[in-house]
Amino acid sequence: MLKISPDELKLVAQYIHDISGIYLEQSKSYLFETRLGSIATEHGCNTYKELYQKAKTEPSKIIERKIIDAISTNETLFFRDKGPFELLQHKLLPELIDARTPGSPALKTNLKIWSAASSTGQELYSIAIIINELIPNISKYTIKLLGTDISDGAVAQASRGKYNKFEMERGLPGDKLQRYFTMFGDSWTIKDEIRAMVQFRKLNLMLPFSGLGKFDIIFCRNVAIYFTLPDRQKLFNKIADSLADDGYLIIGSTESLTGICPRFIPKRHLRSIFYQKK
Amino acid sequence: MRNMTILVVDDDPVIRRMLEKRLEKEGYEVLIAEDGYQARKIIPQQHIDVVLTDLMMPGTIGGIEVLEIAKSISPNIEVILITAHSSVDTAVEAMKKGAADYLEKPINFDELFLRLEKIANVQSIMRNALDLSQAMDTTESAAAVTIQNLEIRTAVLQSRIESIISILRDEQTPPYERIYKVLDLLTDQNDFLT
C-alpha cells in the first residue's frame, strides 16, 4: 500500500473537502491509503501529491470522480433503521396527504420528497414502496421522489436499482422482497412500477440547490456527519429554505441539530424525531 | 471439523460414495441425495452450506433446478455443479443464475477442496460483517435514544429561556410578579421528564 506523508495528508484532505464537502480527519491516514491507494497506482502515480495534481488538472474529471466514489461511504440498507419509515407511514404521509389534498376532486395532490444523500438508492426505494402501499389511488397524485448523491457510482447503481445479496442481506422483509424485486442469480432488481416512481441525480450538497424547488419531506440522514460544523450549519440553513413551511425534515437517528440550525424545532413521534420549521 | 454441511446430489452411486468418503475425510458434514427429487425434500429441512450437484440427472429436476431450489430457500446456500466437459456452456449459464462454481468430470479433489475452502472463507467473512453490523445497529440505537432525549430537552429549555426573557422584559407587569412567574417556570420540573 502506497504510504501517505503528513504534507500530502493536508493537501489531499483539503482537496477532498473542496470537491465534496467531506471532512476527513488527518489522523486517519489509513483511511486515505486504503481508499485512494489503488486509484494512485491505477493512474501510474508514485505519490499522493502526484495523484492530487493529476486529479486537479485532468479535464475529464475521471480521477476526481473516482476519488469521490472511493471516499464517500455507501453503507446503506433498505428500511435502514425502521423508525423513520414507520414515522413516514403512520404520521408524516397521512398528515401531508390531508394537508395537500385539494378541495376539487379534479385536481391532483402534489407530493415532493427528497432523499438528499441517496447513496445507492435503498432509502428512496424504501420510501417509494411505502407510498405504493399507503396510497391506493395513486393516479390522483403527482408524486416526485428525488434522490441525490455526490458519487457518480452511487447514482448509477441507484438508477439501475440492482443489488447483490450482500446489499440485500438485512432490513428487507421477505414479503417485500418477493413483491418488489425480481431475482436473477445472486442479484435482485427493483420492479419497474417502483423504479418508475423515482429519479436520481448527482448533487454536491455544498453547492446551491434552491433550483430543486421546495419539498414536503426531506431525508438528510447520516451525511452531515462527514462535514465540518460551519458546513453543517450552511447545509441545514439551505435545507430550511428548500422545505415547505409545513414540511418535515428527517435526519439520522444519532444526529442532532442543536447548535446547528435554530430554524428547526424537533418533535417526537413514538420512538422517532422529526423536525419542522419554527 | 470444518463446520460446513455439504449436500451431495448425484444419481451415480459410485460417485456419490466417493464424494461422501473424501469429503467426510476432510472433515465436512455430508448429506446425500440420490437425485433431484430427494434434494428438493432435503434442502428445506436441513441447514446446508454447500450443494454439490451433478448437472445431468434423470427426471425433470436436474442440477439447474436443484440450484434454483437451493437459492429460493436461501441465497446463502452456495451451489457447485459437476459437469461433463460437453456441458460446460450449460454450467456457465448456471453461474449466471447464481451457482458459485462448476467442476468438470472426472472430479479433481484438490480443486474441489480448494473451492470449498474459498466458500468457507467468504462465509466466515460474511458472518463477521453481519456480526459487526449488528453490533453497530445496537450501539447506534442506544446512542439514538440518548441523543433524541437531549435534543428534545434542549428544545424545551430553549423555549423556556425565551419565555423567561419575554416575561422579564414585560414592563407592563410589576417586577415582583415577573419574578414569581420566572420562578414558576424555573422550578417546573415536568417538562424535564419527557
Which CATH class of the largest domain in chain B applies here? Answer: Alpha Beta
State the shape of chain A. globular
CATH topology of the largest domain in chain A: Rossmann fold
CATH architecture verdict of the largest domain in chain B: 3-Layer(aba) Sandwich
Q: What is the structural class of chain A? A: alpha/beta
If you compute it from the alpha carbons, what radius of gyration of chain B comes out, rounded to the nearest whole angstrom?
33 Å
Total number of β-strand segments of chain B? 5
CATH level-four homologous superfamily name of the largest domain in chain A = Vaccinia Virus protein VP39
Oligomeric grouping of the chains:
heterodimer
Number of helices of chain A: 11
Cα end-to-end separation of chain B = 54 Å
SSE order of chain B, as H and E?
EHEHEHEHEHH
Structure annotation, total helices of chain B: 6
- Specify Rg of chain A, calculated over alpha carbons: 20 Å
Q: Give the number of domains of chain B.
A: 2
Report how far the terminal alpha carbons of chain A are from each other.
Answer: 51 Å
Strand ordering within the main sheet of chain A? 6-2-1-7-8
Largest interface: A-B, 23 and 25 residues
Give the percentage of residues in beta strands of chain B: 5-15%
